[in-house]
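Give me structure tokens for this 375-residue protein.
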Amino acid sequence: MKSAGLNRVNISLDTLDENKYSYITRGGGKLIDVLEGIQAAKDAGLVPIKINTVLVGGGFNDDEIVDLVKLTDREYIDVRFIELMPIGEAIKYESEHFLSNQMVLEKVPQLIEVEKEDISSPAVYYKLPNGKGKVGLINPVSCKFCAHCNRVRLTAQGKLKLCLHSNDEIDLKDPLRKGQDIEKIIVDAIKLKPESHRLESGEYISKKNVSNRRVNMDFTHFNEEGRAHMVEVGHKEDTRRVAVATGKIYMKEKTISLIKDGLIDKGGDVLSVAQVGGIMGAKRTSQLIPMCHNINLTGGVDIRFNILEDVIEVESEVKTIGKTGVEMEALTAVSLALLTIYDMCKAVDKDMVIGDIKLMKKFGGKSGEYIRKVD
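Here you go.
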């Protein structure tokens, strides 16, 4: 790999204890493999080697600080201690096991601070007297360094991550496969890089918000604090979007007959008015449903009815060319059409029941095609 251009390696190593290492790697990791890898990197001349160690209190590795620092004494190895952050698996441990990196300076008081070579580096560096390597302290919680951060990350899934501590990601893989100019997408995205993270907020890391943080990982309408927000879609490509939804209204057979014969004495043809109600509902979805974008329904809205013995089935189909899907518009169209039927017929049948409203299929966008399986 060195001959291919590799000139540096970063290695995650949170403990020098074989049993602890096996534990944190869920039984699949061997400490000896890591140590042999470090030796191989040294033999290849990939120095200085950077070792990243997350400092975990409660007796996990806070008793190994001195041993880890000693790695920097006679070898060109930099050990960087990173404060435990309330992200991912660490959320459930952070409040009990967080330790400030000040602990490193207390346990190794002979460390001498050295001048920072790169202002954007997240680490503050120290050295043992006459040591070959350095000891770095990365303090994202106790001493945030966002003002100098110039990092973005590209995930293995092709997502651009503007901040390590945010769940917001920008897809690059799909535009790349479509031959789009991803350089422009990246440049535009970097302009949206957050001013800072909020790890230091008690609200963010407290146990009471663990559920919100977990929800946030899966639900796009929650931000990194677990608060509701509207999703940014400006960077997305305009694509053809289609959604179909259905619903039913159950009623007496007599009511069905009155609708068929046009004898409902309120405002004219029930289904024609319901059709208008459904279309109006689709157009006003963003005013009715929080966090929905205002979408120009360029492809139109179709409302169709199927009249059975004691039920009317309603189907809506919504189409557009845009940056986000129209599933909510289709569902809203069905709901408003059904509610209109109920409103027009309630004088003769208050026992009507609206139900079984569901998305049947959708096409377009990053998530691709969805077709509901028939039971």
